[in-house]
Amino acid sequence: MKTIWKGMLFAGLLASSVASSLVSSPALAEDLDGATLFRKRCSACHQPDGQGIPGAFPALAGNAFVQGDGDAVASVLLSGRGGMPNFSGQLADRDIAAVLSFVRSSWGNQAPPLSAEQVAALRARLHANAYDPAPPGGGRGH
Ligand code: HEC
Fold first, then answer.
1. Does the Cβ of 104 fall within 6 Å of ligand 1?
2. Is the CB of 82 under 6 A from ligand 1?
3. Does residue 94 lie in a domain region?
4. pTM score, two decimals?
5. Domain membership flag for residue 131
6. Domain count, the chain
7. How confident is the model at residue 27 (pLDDT cuts 50, 70, 90)?
8. Helix crossing, 116-126 with 70-79: angle to 10°?
9. Which atom of ligand 1 approaches the CA of 81 most closely?
10. CATH number of 86's domain
């Protein structure tokens, strides 16, 4: 009986730590490098080595789509797709450019970087949400 409870506690802790790592920190424009952004925003699902989890999260390493047309890749982040969250409100154009440039040139991937200007133009064309991080101390004062 005791070990069952321990197991449930462990599973709960694990689930909540995964959940909290997915919750965006409502900060100002992050201004982080692509590797750091990937670790914070993407690696929980796609894994730190970009291999994903078969049947759940696609591998980004060695992925032809990821190394193909930059607009197509960025549109996944700006609009979301299936189980892939929509990051348009959470990541600034330069953050999306940085994280995708990292993904496109890591783990053996070899594709050219994306620019913040390219992401901005695509965001406008897609009518994606504006970058809108919650203000500091958000949730108060309504
Ligand atoms: C909550 C889990 C989760 C997180 C976090 C996440 N993704 Fe995804 N991602 C997915 C899933 C699930 C798919 C497959 C979507 C589908 O089937 O249409 C996907 C698909 C993708 C694709 C398209 C791959 C393909 O072969 O079509 C790219 C590119 C991508 N994600 C990049 C990222 C980047 C970059 C980040 C971080 C900014 C990120 N993802 C964060 C779950 C996630």
1. no
2. yes
3. yes
4. 0.81
5. no
6. 1
7. very low
8. 60
9. 18
10. 1.10.760.10
Q: How many whole angstroms from 57 Cα to the centroid of ligand 1?
A: 7
Calpha distance 18→22 (Å, rounded): 6
Residue 53 within any structural domain of the chain: yes
| pLDDT, tens only, 46-103 | 999 999 999 999 999 999 999 999 999 999 999 999 999 999 999 999 999 999 999 9
- Rounded-to-integer distance, Cα 128 and Cα 130, Å: 6
Which range marks the domain in which residue 107 is found? 29-126
Q: Quick one: tokens of 18?
A: 């995964």
Is ligand 1 within 6 A of the CB of residue 103? yes
Ligand 1 contacts CB of residue 44 (under 6 A): yes
CA 120 to CA 126: how far, in whole Å?
10
CB neighbours of residue 18 within 10 Å: 11
Report pLDDT for 86. Answer: 97
Q: Is residue 78 part of a domain?
A: yes
Q: Which residues contact 108 (CB under 8 A, 6 or more apart)?
A: 61, 62
Ligand 1 pocket residue status of 65, Cβ below 6 Å: yes
- Residue with CA nearest ligand 1 atom 33: 42
